[in-house]
């Protein structure tokens, strides 16, 4: 059983994922109910006694118990629930949650997994500072980190409250990891999750490691991604080039093979910008369907640009049954973010009315859990062996989470096809061991072992089969056709190890018309609707270009842990399908829900949003590190009280104290006026001064950080979010860690640096029973190796 003591999206989404996996979730609410019950992003009026559609989506199958913290009997009831529960998910924001602090719950109920979700964490100098999704994106570096926007305007945040969902997904994964541990040890844990840290991992691409290893930021200016989201003859289409080969193919597709220059000193992004006008002209002259058919034939990542109004009609989602009717209110909502066989996730069930189950738990309280005996010091996933056949970001992000919590993860590459992240750092191939110098690979693969195997050879496949027999989990994130061609479908894997859990992470799923399309983060974001809400209202949407991969990875962790629990109970193997696009549909759910429940199409609005008013970026007087007057602060006023505090901090000017602005509705009607005044005030001051003035006054505010400056934040320093580990080629490297801290450890997450190519060949093959002569034969035949074949041929 899981007790939910939270308000807002993050806690509700965490417990939704747990409920979908079969947990009994008891949502404890104050007498006035969770504020989400009356929420609508479009401003639709939720009638008294009814619930908002988003609440109904996030709270299906849960029970609702009302507890008044002023009532001793109600406090006793909640304590009885905690005593009988396996886990509690907590966030501040309600009177009842504030009465039960995370540290005290874990002290009083040592068997309990207490998952706390806060803006900055439970400790550190910022623990009590105010923040919103918007200001956290600014602090994380996620607003400017990937150059989102155009140079003559403010950068733009990622729309749609994705940070809330990311925090919920990470909270679910951590809770399930320690539930795996709790089952064997009986002991609880306090999981202290920081939403700032989840946004760093979800909205930036390891910028600190990149900057320290290569001496330059990932991007130092805002540039359009070309083509990106582009206007076609009859609608919007997203086309992307994530590799040099895809750029070459795009050149051929648009009829300009002469643009292909393999010796160009420019990156593919820079080359695309040179030819942007001609590329856009070509796209405008063709219909969306024709463009996508051509792009698919050329293996160029592509997708339609979805929004709440059109997403349910897209052929791929129709054929896969990606959307289902809400069982109580009838609107459409995404199905599960992952699927599995033979076990099935819980089917959608109605959300509870406020207090619907109060009397049930008052009259028959469940029995308390026994206190744990002793304390286990092992990591929660110790003993789990994972064969990691993933590459790039989404898959390695999942297996990295497992490795940092104790799983033995064996990363498979080949000398012909090393992990793609080894090849994207721009290190010249004339440089010694260039393939070991990728910051992204270094950041994503600590604690793993590395084995090279040529899976195109019979001998390589034979060795792979022997290795599979020793592993609990097989993980891969290729397009389905690749695994099919290798002959590694689930039936084959099960013939080798019947109780195996196979995690497949295709971009668009194992079936449907887009199943074999290449999938990078940006096309996933457009297909799911995330791009639609990101950007200025008068320009085409921008791809977030970030959240699609890590969001997929962390959802896959939850799916995998659910599958391992099913195997523990039944002995059955499980096939898990954790498609990138399904995870993205879940965190973009509000668009479809608002449209089918209220007829509202949510729109991008630059840096404004429905959760705070005013909410925007304002330029400061600071010159940035690149010599530009391009420094910004984020301000987000989420309540009328915060508006009063802002007015006081400004010196109570007459424009701000106008009674028409005292309510959110009044401020919404005068946003332009408010923005003009705040822009004038901010332009005269430094970012540091603005943050000090407003934060001390109780207003959510943030500097818009360059992402490689994350280690300068006092909160991250205090929580030890960055760890330094010595790499045999690159020397000491600073790496981001987990977005949470655990009361029982581990206290340090990176124990071994990312492995060298084929570093563990001999160790792992000897373990499988191969003799030194057999290993030497494999090396001589190119089945294994420690140097990329593309390098050996130069």
From TrEMBL:
Residues 349-369 are annotated as: Disordered. Keywords: Transferase. GO terms for molecular function: CoA-transferase activity. The keyword Ribonucleoprotein does not apply. The lineage of its organism: Bacteria, Bacillati, Actinomycetota, Actinomycetes, Mycobacteriales. InterPro entries: CoA-transferase_III_domain (IPR050483), CoA-Trfase_fam_III (IPR003673), CoA-Trfase_III_dom3_sf (IPR044855), CoA-Trfase_III_dom_1_sf (IPR023606). This is CoA-transferase. It comes from Mycobacterium gastri.
